[in-house]
Amino acid sequence: MLVGGPERWDKGVDFVETVDILDKHARPNEGILVHEVSSSYGSLYQVLCQMLGTHKIVFKRGNLVGDDHPLPAVAEVGLSLTCGFPSSITLIADEPVNEPGVIWAATQAERNAEHIRVTPVTVANGRTIRIAAVGISNSGKAFANSSSLCLMWELSNCDALAFWDDSYELGGSRSGWERFLVLQNESGLCLRVPLKKKNSLHVLYSWPLVALKCIVRATVIGCAGTMSGHVAAPLLESSENVLTDAVRLQLVSSLRVTPDFKLLFFNSDAKANLSITGGSCFLDAVVNDSRVVDVIQPPPGLQCLQLIVAPKRLGTALVTVYDIGLVPPLSASSMVHVADVDWIKITSGEEISLMEGSVQSIIVMAGVDDGSTFDAFQYVYMNIQVHIEDHIVDLVDGDNDISSFSGGFLNSPKFMILAKHLGVTNLYVSARQASGREILSNQIKVEVYAPPRIYPPDIFLVPGAAYVVKYRVIDSD
């Protein structure tokens, strides 16, 4: 693309825009061809290489002499074009475009005797990635286009992990320099060794991986029909010039953080776990507001499986986990809302009838005004207390032990009552906010009745005879 140079003057002055090819060894229209392509961004030219060698193209643009312009204003710029064959090729994996920095890094990567890159490229599975090949000159510079050479693409050790998606191929060609690989939602077994780094806003966990890998290879096998025979001959006659490159793909599951929303009770001891699945295990956890929550180091062996967040103040913070082991990095986030309890209620119905001596479970739910509810493990920090007007029922645990409930305080959203005496009473629960304000639940009515009895408890009758029995409820002693 040609940009810059003098702008067009008025209509009375001729504006010129020319292209000159300076090549004393080639006849016109033999060495290279240049023609302009319409573009709204500037002067776009297509350059076609037809003869081996180095050529110079001079682009000129400007205004000639006019009535009010006695001197011309014409600028020129030159382009050096080397037309030749690459001395090597390199593969680019999971990159949207072939950036110069990415190409340089790929060419510098160490390779073994089979032209396979020693260090694998880690990619997230369950998606389609771009694989591209780039021709490299003997000076180390990348070719702008090598599409007149045909490639053979191969997959090794991939099994059912990956396959080519031919629907992306331009014109249905499978020998082009760009292809698209579908990665199945599978991954290999890994051996992990932890490495930890922490600062005020970031927590970095890295786990080197060793696993079975899918190998992608591209090899130049010939020339396309657009290349003339005498130009292709130097490449085809050289049996030593095998242009090939291969890369190992380390397939890992896509990164996920669950849940994507977490309601956390405002208490310094109320910590919550965020589960991590997938990814390369080179993870960087970032909190957008460290005043609200803090990320705490998980126990040994769990650094790649979870994050622990602790509340610091009321508010909302976004915890983002970046998978820096992938290029480009992927990320997943979870919104953490630190709040105080706004309401609490009993969900077991407005009335409960119990037979004397029986046990009944009661479920409590606590949450905030938007309808979100706290997880069960957070109830122990809310100072939830059970209030019973007439103690015809007692709080008990799973073994009907009354002594485990000191002061009627709960450590979970579920408690049990034992029907101890006959009668009717009311029951409710309360929670206390950080400000000291007490939040009350709805009241429920509890009735304790005596077990039914029948008199006499057993009788003897002759076939055909009858006897009257009485069913009644009697007061308990």
Describe the structure.
With 477 residues, the protein is mostly beta strands. The protein is built from two helices and 34 strands. A hairpin with a 3-residue loop joins strand 12 and strand 13 (202-206). The longest helix is centred in the first third of the chain and has 9 residues, at 100-108. Mean pLDDT is 81; it is low at 188-212 and 229-233.
Strand order, main sheet: write it out. Answer: 12-13-19-22-23-17
What is the helical fraction, as a range of percent? under 10%
* Nearest-integer average pLDDT: 81
Number of helices: 2
Biggest sheet record: 6 strands, mixed
Shape: elongated
> Termini separation (Å)?
103 Å
Strand content: 35-45%
- Uncertain residue ranges: 188-212, 229-233
If you compute it from the alpha carbons, what radius of gyration comes out, rounded to the nearest whole angstrom? 39 Å
- What is the β-strand count? 34
* Structure classification: mainly beta
